[in-house]
Structure formats: structure tokens, C-alpha cells
Amino acid sequence: MEACSPAWQERLSAWFDGEGPAHERQAVEQHLARCVGCAREAARYAPLREALKAQAATETHVPPELRARVSRLAPRSRPSFRRRWTVGLAAAVASVGILWTSWPGGMNDALAMDLERHHLKAFSRATPCEFESSDPDAVKAWVAREVGYAVDVPVVPGATLLGARRCRLHGQLSASLLYRHEGGTAMTLFLPPPGSPAAREAASFAGEGTRCTQGPIGERICVAPRGGGQAALAVSELEQPVLVDALARLAP
Amino acid sequence: MSSRSFIERALEHLPALRRVGRRLTGSTAEADDLVQETVARALERHDELRDPERLKGWLLAVQRAVFLNSRRGLRPRLEVLEGGLGKEAAPEPSADLEAELHAHTLSSGMKAALESLAPEWRDALWLREVEELSYEEIAQVQGCPVGTVRSRLARARGAMLDLLEKEKSHGSL
User: Fold this and answer.
1) What is each CA distance from A86 to A76, A101, A102, A137, B88, in whole angstroms?
2) CB atoms within 10 A of CB A240
3) Going residue by residue through chain A (252 aa), what tens digit of pLDDT does each one get?
4) What are phi and psi of A64, to 5 degrees?
5) Mode of pairing for the β-strands spanning A220-227 and A230-236
6) Domains of chain B and any CATH numbers
7) For site-directed labelling of B150, which of A5, A27, A160, B91 has its Cα 20 to 30 A away?
8) Containing domain of residue A86, as a range?
9) Which pTM does this prediction carry?
10) In this protein, which residues make up the domain named RNA polymerase sigma-70 region (chain B) (predicted)?
11) Rounded to 5 degrees, what are φ and ψ at B86?
12) CA torsion, ordered A103, A107, A111, A112, to nearest 10 deg
């Protein structure tokens, strides 16, 4: 039997896909009328396509957990400017030294996005932590061993320490501590290495006092400067005072 | 397009992102992480999407970039095995291969044939036949010229049909 040559095979394949210029498509149609090999080849493309589609039809399921993880990436509706301003002012008045700002503005967007993603990604797992322990000393020892620097692991009232994970902030390995508050709400404390770009950027954002913002994905982010270019960051959907309180539990 | 409506539209394409993600990572759990990372990255960049009608192709391109970035340095770059498969004299096609294809869509032979293709050929074939992307969109996803996509598809089809023919002649299709 006459074989379909590689050159015609390529034209034939493009013709089958409805691609290629009109003159080429016309040439293929004329060729098909006289070439048994190519006609035979073309006849096998459609069943191959159907077979592959049938294979894919078994892979259309998306687990609700994945859908929820992706849906959470959508920014929550933010309060109106007036309400944000009022809430911010009230918060500032209520907590002297604590500033509130509304994204965008202030915090580096890439850092804010990284923080939110690490937080959401960790808590979307069945086991959020790399190292699981509710013992602050054990978590502290794991961080020192695996991340390479000492951190304070605070006890946060109303929250359970789950453990710790490593993450990368601005490309540098950083420690994160994971907590779950009563009611199940997740919170991550990020403790970037002293002097690291993320720590310096966060400290610069915070200035003299603890400062909070809303990340692009919608989580609340609070930053506490810790002196010497260090900073600690809390990420959660919890209210700002809860995050500020958690950060205040860190040793000075 | 607002961030919220972008996510809503991206949700429609999760099955495709997951299917392709599984092929890239070889693992369902890793694919799910990759999908989440892809949508997060796409959300950051969604202002760059010029044609909202081509969201699926654009998301798959972002997914591939996220995947390659995550694997950079962890494994050798994918090799392009142009012309390496199915180029020897092909056996005479059987008269009923079309029917066999219909009847055995999920056969191990079908899967094995697909897996034996060069990755770029297999991906191009999958993106065209299953995800129904245009040549231009596949070129965007694969980061290559449209002409290369055209060539990959023709070779992938030829190789798949040859491999299935061989499988059949060994009685395992």
C-alpha cells in the first residue's frame, strides 16, 4: 500500500485540525482524493482523537478541597473606603502604636502574596506542618536544626501550636509557625532570618510599631518590628487585634 | 476583569489544569498544589491576559512556567526527541484499527503508547486533542514556534498510530 509521506503527513495533520493556509487545505483535499495511503492515515486520526478524549473523560473530577483552595484565592470583598478608614482609625485609637493600612500601598506586593500563599498552601494540606508538635521547645529545636537560626516560639492564648514549616520569602529559607485558633481558624507566624531581605522589608513597612494590612488575596497581615532589621509577621483571616496580640507574645 | 471574576472563570478550567498538571508532575497531590500555585500566579498577572477567550491556553502556559520554575535545577531539562519515534518502516495498518480504537480507549496499550512518546509530542497531542487548544495557543504553552507545534502533532499522531498498530499485531491492544 502507498505510504503517507512525512511531508504529506504534516499537511494532513494540520488539515485535520483545521489549521494551515487555505491553499494548503485545498491541496490536501485534492491529494486525499488520489492517495490511498494518506486517505487511510486521515481516517485514523478521528478515532485516535476520540480515544484520547475518552481517556480524558475519566479525569474531569475536581475534588471539592481543590476547588475550595482555589476559590479562597479570590479576594474577599473589602469594606468601602469610608468603612476602612473608620475601622482603621478606630483600631489605631484603640491600640496606640498600631497602624492599619489597606492594600495596595505600604507592603511590597510580592512579599504579601508570598506570605498569603505559604499560609493558604500549608493549611490546605491534610498535615499543614513539616514538623508537628505543640511543644514550643521542640518546635524551636526543629527550626534551629532545619532552618538554621534561633526563633522564639510563643504560646498564644486561645490558639494551639501545630508545629512549623520551612518556606522561602524573597528566595531565602524562613521559618513559619502554625497555629489553629479556637473555632478552627488558621494563623501562621513568619519569622524571617534576621537581616534577610524579607525581614528588612517587613521591618521597614512596620516602622516603629506593629502595622497591619490586607494582602492581595484577602488575608490580614500584621507586622511587628523586632529591632536590628528583624520582623515577625502574622497572617490569618482573624481580626487584627488577635494577630497583634499573637505578635506581642514573642519575646522582645 | 476583577480578581473575583477572574477566579470564577479560572475555576471552570480546573479539570484541564489538573489533567495537565498530573501529566507534568506524575502525582495527583503535586498536581493539586501546582494548580493552586498556577491560579495564584495567574491572578497576580491576570492584567496581562489580552484575550479573555483564550484563558484556558493562557492558564496552561502559566502552569507550565510555574512547573518548570519549581523544577529548575531539580531535573534535567526536557529533551526534544525530534524524529526519534515511529520513523522505522511502519507495519501495514490493519483494516479494523479504527474499530479497535473505539473499543479499547482505556487499554493499557493506549496509555503505554501515549507515555512512550517524546514529552513534547505527547503534550502537544494532549493539548490539541483533549484540551482543544489552537496551534497558536499550544505554541504559547510550549514556548515554541507554531511550525514546531505542527510538526510535533504530525509526528505524535504518526507515532501513536504506529505504536498502537504494533500493540495490536502483538495482540495486546
Assistant:
1) 19, 11, 12, 41, 75
2) 23
3) 466 788 889 999 999 999 989 999 999 999 999 998 899 889 999 999 998 888 788 778 888 888 888 888 876 554 443 444 444 444 443 444 444 444 444 677 778 888 888 888 787 666 788 899 999 999 999 999 999 999 999 999 999 999 999 988 888 899 999 999 887 888 999 999 988 989 988 888 888 888 998 887 778 899 998 877 789 999 998 888 999 999 999 877
4) -55, -30
5) antiparallel
6) 3-71 (1.10.1740.10), 97-169 (1.10.10.10)
7) B91
8) 64-248
9) 0.55
10) 12-74
11) 65, 20
12) -30
Q: Considering only the beta carbons, identify the residue of B14, B90, B125 that sits closest to A66.
A: B14
- Mark yes or no for CB contact A73/B40 under 8 Å: yes
B94 min Cα distance to partner chain A (Å): 10
Contacts of A124 in chain B (CB under 8 A): 36
* Nearest CA distance, A243 vs chain B (angstrom): 24
- Please state the ipTM of this predicted complex: 0.72
Is residue A104 reached through a cis peptide bond, with omega within 30 degrees of 0 on the bond before it?
yes
Do the bridges between strand A99-100 and strand A211-214 make them parallel or antiparallel, or are there none, so unpaired? Answer: parallel
Which three cell numbers, joined as nine digits, stand for A189?
A: 507566624
Is residue A185 included in any domain, yes or no? yes
Residue A47 to residue B153, Cβ atoms within 8 A: no
| Closest Cβ opposite residue A44 in set B22, B98, B153 | B98
